[in-house]
Specification:
With about 600 residues, the chain is α+β, with helices and mostly antiparallel strands. Helices cover about 25% and strands about 20% of the residues.
Amino acid sequence: MTVGGPRRRAATLVVVLLAVLLAACTAPTAPAPAPPPPTAAPQPTQVVVAVDDLGAGFNPHLLAHQSPVTTALAGLVLPSVFRPDANGVLQLDRTVATSAQVTSQDPFTVTYELNLEASWTSNAPIAAEDFVYLWERMRDEPGVADAAGYRLITDVRSRAAGKAVDVVFSQRYTAWQTLFSNLLPAHLLKDAPGSWTGALANGLPASGGPFRVVSVDRARGEILLTRNDQYWDTPAVLDQLSLRRITGTALADGLTVGDVDIALQTPDDTVRTALSGVAPPPKLQTAPQPVVTELALRTDGGPLSDTRVRQALEGLIDREAVRAAVAPDALAADSYSLAPSQPGYASSAPTNRPDATTLLTSAGWSRDDDGRWQDDGEPVQLIIGAAAERPADVEVAENVAAQLDAAGIDTTVVAPAGAALFGQATVPPTPPSTSTTPPPTAGATATSTPSPEPTSAPTATVTPTTPPTAAPAAAVTVDLMVRPRTVGGDPATELASDYGCDDPVTPNGPPARPSVPTTCSSALQPLIDELLANTNPDAATDTRAAVEKLLWAQVPALPLFQPVSLLVSTASADVGTGVAPGPLTTGPLTGAQRWTQPQR
């Protein structure tokens, strides 16, 4: 027996027992905790408004850019000294100006004290230079809306580092509160080439309101506005406001699944048919637009310079038939000074239509062997113009052309760009386009990127030939023009802008004449001047009636209709937005900065 054996076995046993006890007393290692699930990024609050067209551009002062979308953007992005309340009464917007008042009668002077915090998103202050820029452009540029008040201004003076402005007029002007709405950022536009139209064709470069335009994607058909985080007053509730081009079945699908909250559409059978299948049925309201579509007639030359010829056309053109064919939901317009949707509107049109044949014969016209009218032995050829970007206007022109053709008068319809039509004396004889852009086929694809054109080469070998270069067609003068006449502001200013004499003296000479100029009548102008000055308020109604009577006698234009938009909203959108037609001049998106996102 080995002497050390039992001792070694005992020691080994002790070691083993100690190891077991130690292991029993040692707590097991806890597993590592699982990482928390990733937190989803909060989605921006948003309201989606479906529109049927983005419009030609976004300068609210240009006739060529008038559209419901331009009206909406101007109200949410651009600063205005006065804004209409729910009843359409102008109220001082203290986020822009802390005071605005007449400070002198001789010369008539209005003084504005601007909010010291008011600034553009470019960090430049909203200041006197913006007043000067708008005044000069409205005074000098052709094709603008409601310019008469600005053309009465003789000087705009800056004080207090641009935060106080004195505006001096050539005469008393009681409607001064209608001026300096939708100010534009002068520091960005005044030196930019083509700034008055070009820089605003695809957006607004800076904001002075609760929202800002961050993108205009014409290919996808979307305008995206976001909250202006630099806004100095109460911020907008929504993060985003999206205006998307969605129509037809895509509109119905979007309203059904909640991709669309509100729609602002041109009412027609296609829209109504699509909406009839939406469940639950959306709310439908009518929103009159702040324009009257009219047919302006050339008075300063050409076949229509004779008043009897213009009177004959009044008898030949069935205005109600034009409205029924083009815009059956629109409001028939029979006044030069007020729109059908405005309080106090009444038809001023003569009850008896003139005999066209007698009038044309007395003006020296005669019929040829085929019954076509001629003047001094030459066939009469009237040119009717409509802006290419305004399809309803083109349709009006074609309907008028068909009526005149049936009456024996030859016509040609041209459709140049609106900026050229409303601002130039002659225009290219561009025929109306028959091509249309198809609307999105589903709500989800309304903002999708269009598929690229195929790039593969054709399999057949083709030898290219160079066609002979044709000489450009000579520019033409338009005899009749379909145009939007802005309404909703001061009636006297609108009458003076549309039908008064327009020969201001400017540093660069008189402004370019539009293709169809305004009337300058020695009988009419004193009455318009009286209305502008409002020297006898008690007689204003009688004076305006006299103006209307003279205009129907001289026929510088024929009012046709006031377009309306169909305002569509879901039940949840009504709760979150309370959307309504709104004041005439600012439209259904008025107050969108207070909207909340509908429950989807």
